[in-house]
């Protein structure tokens, strides 16, 4: 496991009533995992399985926001924000290998059909923006806060993956990486792709949300406070899949 993180923050005060902040964050991690299972089940004896994974993940995000107060406009407060993020996941050569023992040599194994090699990539990006207004009022000694705002969110994803499933047993006695390498030069001989109409190899998806909201918050009596608001949203989501990707 290897990880790297980067963080930065900068703030600017403009006079006494205005502030702008900028934040950036990035992280990257790499995981390597190897595991082996050996034993017996209710249906099988001398069970031997291996799994090998290598996964790289990366995330970075930036955000800028501002806070403003306007004394000449009844102390109107305006807060705005905007951010953009990208996240990726790359998992090449996720190898799952099952072995079966030879009937005349139970301690000698060969790579069994059903073993597989999986490749997958995912890329996400997200955009957020919004602005909020707050107007504090004093109506004959009663504190009333009028609030309104708008928020926008967009999320996009692009993903691609494929799993190659071994159809026939490979020659016994070989190292896994060498055995697979020989057949991956022409995978159609021993492996079958899982891609198909019910298992798309590639898809892109997007989601958008527009939100408008308003309300008020009032201190009616020293012991009673009320808040009423409303929110309206427009939501769009679309997905496009492809069984194969043009090379």
Topology summary:
Layout: E1 2-14, E2 18-39, E3 47-70, E4 76-102, E5 105-111, E6 116-139, E7 142-166, H1 176-184, E8 191-193, E9 202-221, E10 224-242
Antiparallel strand pairs: 1-2, 2-3, 3-4, 4-5, 4-6, 6-7, 7-8, 7-9, 9-10
Q: Could you name the key traits of this structure?
A:
mainly beta, 10 strands, single chain, 247 residues, 1 helix, 10-stranded antiparallel beta sheet
Rg, rounded, reads: 29 Å
- Look at the structure and give the mean pLDDT: 85
Oligomer: single chain
Number of distinct helices: 1
Parts with pLDDT < 50 across at least 5 consecutive residues: none
Please tally the β strands and state the result.
Answer: 10
Structure report:
By secondary structure, the chain is mainly β. The chain has 1 helix and 10 strands; from the N terminus they run βββββββαβββ. Strands 1, 2, 3, 4, 5, 6, 7, 8, 9 and 10 form a 10-stranded antiparallel beta sheet that branches. A hairpin with a 5-residue loop joins strand 3 and strand 4. The longest helix is centred in the last third of the chain and has 9 residues, at 176-184. The mean pLDDT is 85.
Q: Could you give a quick summary of the protein structure above?
A:
Helix content is 4%, strand content 74%. The chain is mainly beta and 247 residues long.
């Amino acid at each position: 496991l290897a990880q790297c993180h980067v963080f930065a923050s900068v703030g600017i005060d403009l006079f006494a009533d205005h502030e702008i902040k900028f934040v950036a964050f990035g992280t990257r991690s790499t995981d390597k995992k190897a595991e082996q299972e050996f034993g017996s089940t209710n249906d099988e004896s001398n069970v031997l399985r291996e799994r090998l994974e290598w996964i790289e993940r990366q995330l970075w995000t930036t955000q800028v926001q501002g806070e403003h107060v306007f004394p000449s406009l009844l102390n109107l407060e305006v807060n705005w924000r905007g951010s953009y993020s990208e996240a990726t996941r790359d998992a090449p050569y996720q190898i799952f290998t099952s072995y079966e023992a030879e009937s005349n040599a139970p301690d000698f194994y060969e790579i069994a059909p059903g073993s597989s090699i999986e490749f997958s990539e995912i890329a996400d990006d997200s955009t957020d923006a919004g602005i909020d207004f707050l107007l504090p009022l004093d109506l004959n000694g009663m504190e009333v806060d009028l609030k309104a705002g708008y928020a926008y969110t967009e999320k996009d994803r692009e993903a691609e993956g494929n799993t190659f499933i071994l159809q026939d047993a490979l020659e016994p006695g070989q190292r896994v990486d060498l055995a697979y390498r020989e057949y991956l030069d022409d995978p159609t001989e021993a492996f079958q792709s899982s891609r198909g109409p019910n298992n798309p190899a590639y898809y892109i998806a997007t989601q958008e949300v527009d939100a408008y909201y308003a309300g008020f918050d009032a201190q009616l009596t020293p012991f009673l406070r009320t808040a009423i608001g409303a929110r309206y949203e427009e939501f769009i989501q679309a997905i496009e899949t492809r069984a194969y990707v043009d090379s």
